[in-house]
Amino acid sequence: MPAISRHQRLFDGLAIGASAVCLVHCLVLPALLVLLPTLGAWLAFPESFHVGALAFAVPTSAFALAGGYRRHRRARPVLIALLGLALLALGALAAPDEVVETVLTVPGAIALAIGHALNWRLARHA
């Protein structure tokens, strides 16, 4: 089989990076906002940020996971990543408040990153 494609590495890398940015946004930013109230107005993100992040995550993940699956034929990374995307979607689109949103999106971002990391590893070794 040919080596893992540049596109596959790019999409998996983008997806993992986006998950990391999401985690930083969900965990570090609220901590900074609590510790340094004056930064609140300066660093605040609009609610549309979460919908935009989801709109980026879905197609990026779809390309990366489909390419990896074609190579390694294992469903586990896809299922883990889909769980992550589902949690992110619930957090971005259906959470009634910020606490519930964070409770959904943090494990969602972690699951998505794990799914992509596993996809990347399996595709590289296929």
From TrEMBL:
For this protein, the parts annotated as crossing the membrane are 12-36, 48-66, 78-96, 102-120
Give the UniProt keywords, A-Z.
Membrane, Transmembrane, Transmembrane helix
Keyword Chaperone applies: no
Say yes or no: keyword Transmembrane present: yes
Q: Name one Pfam family in it.
A: MerC
Domain of life, per lineage:
Bacteria
Q: What is this protein called?
A: MerC domain-containing protein
Query: Which taxonomic lineage does the organism of this UniProt entry have?
Result: Bacteria, Pseudomonadati, Pseudomonadota, Alphaproteobacteria, Sphingomonadales
